[in-house]
Amino acid sequence: MPQLTKCHICGGRLVVVEGYPVAHQVTSDCRIWEGEGLLAACAGCGTLQKPVTESWLRESQSIYADYAVYKQAGGVEQASFDQDTGSSLARSSRIVEWVKRNGAVPATGVLLDIGCGNGAFLRAFGLNNPRWNMEGLELDARNKAPIESIPGVTRLHAGPIETLQARFDLAALIHVLEHIPDPIRYLRSLSSLLKPGGMLLIEVPDLQRSPFDILIADHCTHFSIDTLRRVVTRAGFEVFRLEATCVAKELTLLARYPALSDQTDSSPLEMIDDTSAKIHIAWLQELVEQGRATMGPLGIFGTSIAATWLGAALGDKIKFFVDEDVNRIGRKHMDRPIYSPSDAPKSLAVLMPLRADIAAAVKQRLAQLGLQLIVPPAAPDASRAIVLTKEPQYSIVFDVKEKHGISRLGLMTNESWNQDPKRTLFTLARYKFVAKLLAGAERVLEIGCADAFGTRLVQQTVTRVTAVDFDPVFVEDVKARLDPAWPMECFVHDLLDGPVPGQFDAIYSLDVLEHINPDGEERFVSNMLKSLDTKGVMIVGMPSLESQAYASPQSKAGHVNCKSGDDLKALFKRYFDHVFLFSMNDEMVHTGFYPMAHYLIALCCGKKSDNG
User: Fold this and answer.
1) What domain range is 98 assigned to?
2) What share of the chain is helix, strand, coil (3-state, %, to 5)?
3) pTM of the full structure
4) Predicted confidence (pLDDT) per residue in 184-219, tens digit
5) Contacts of 502 (CB under 8 A, 6+ apart)
6) Complete DSSP assignment for 478-539
7) What is the tally of structural domains in the chain?
8) Is the N or the C terminus of the chain less surrounded, counting Cβ atoms within 10 Å?
9) What is the residue-averaged pLDDT of the chain?
10) pLDDT category, 144, cuts 50, 70, 90?
11) Helix (H, G, I), strand (E, B) or coil at 56
12) 526 & 602 share domain
């Protein structure tokens, strides 16, 4: 056995995973590969990887020298399918749509596509962003002419990244980072090519949902969602989107440089975590045995990595392939014909080297065609390898944990949850009421967000929330807990110093006005109004004056401007044509007698023209 190198993520000791490879390895352009075949797990960070030995480096160079992008489809990019409906979209188009939904693309800019292949992502990005300039980077110039003919592409760079001098607004690595022997160092070198605030887009296979990833000979790092986040943050980037849902069995990440907050990963290290590899290896062996045990000649569903590997493992037993990709149907793969599902032989069984849940969905969708589709054994999910719920419908909790981690309470919410849990309920009930009233609003401003724990309830019903607070301690707490799946802008701002920049469809402020000294009240409200659209809605909530007889000393300490229901309504009638007042006791909102309410909520609309 060759001398193992150290982990290329943390420098830790590598431990070889036994039982690898299963039958053969495959190259990332779908060729069978007979090579060194080592797989290892790091004893320090747990990352599953190919040891970067001299042999692995030579093999990778040999693979790339004869690389043929999407050769099964004549160079046309692989389609990504919705397994329930069968609808397809090119992978790059799906990623571009995801980036656009997540607000990372301004109207103009400059894109660098690293490892651009034959230009599939450049084409998709250019179609959606016609005012952007684009450049590509590849190891060689074999595709120079077709890439530079893509509208918006100004140049293809051939050679190492160190030769680039320009600076970019967005750098994309679509199925590139898994090939890089030292990904953290590589990303750090890339940061110098980004403009301040520049964006990084990464797409890699998801180890936990793609058992076949470990078979790919030239994939150096096998990324889980935690490994990818750790690599990117250690390179100095701030991750603000990381999802496993954009493309099936893949991870999609957006990050910015430089990081605006400390994202140091403090998760425990010093463990050997080859569990996922062992689960995947065992399942792959089951898949081969299933094929060997199935009588007669066979077909295979698909023509990519998994199908290529299984086809080689079963040899002459495989007579044809079945694919739904119109660009592959009618061609040949491994010297066997590729049929559409409707034209495939109905008398022969077709193996499905897919996760069992995906295979079952495809089989159900194609049931009317009469194909003998063989669903594989239950597919592994390494994220749920150890703990399973007794009722299977609750296993989703592990998916959510993997995607989002375990959410932390904010500073303020943590205090109430530990000191007086019911107070947490009362606060969240106020946010829920606001969320219902503002449902459908486009741009919403929260003034005095504190730890913004309840803000997510409003985010669920509106398009975009901007949250401000005058205390930087709370704002930093909010930023430290931001979940990429629930994006919002949050920054320090004191309304007594001026309005929040921009115009908003709705503004709400809960438990703030009672802290404003009466001599600053008019300035505070006037600055709120300056940020409110002429047809906008404002909601203000505060403890009632009558409630203060029962308030705790902690609550009373900052309450310098509590009002009765009549006084609160009178205040906002100066600025709005219509003010609707609601009472609240505990978590219940109602329209009852104001003096008996512990909390008051004013809904204001019809902004008067002489205000703001």
Assistant:
1) 79-257
2) 35, 25, 40
3) 0.63
4) 999 999 989 999 889 999 999 999 888 999 999 999
5) 443, 445, 466, 531
6) HHHH--TTS--EEEE--GGG-PPSS-EEEEEEES-GGGS-GGGHHHHHHHHHHTEEEEEEEE
7) 3
8) N
9) 89
10) very high
11) helix
12) yes
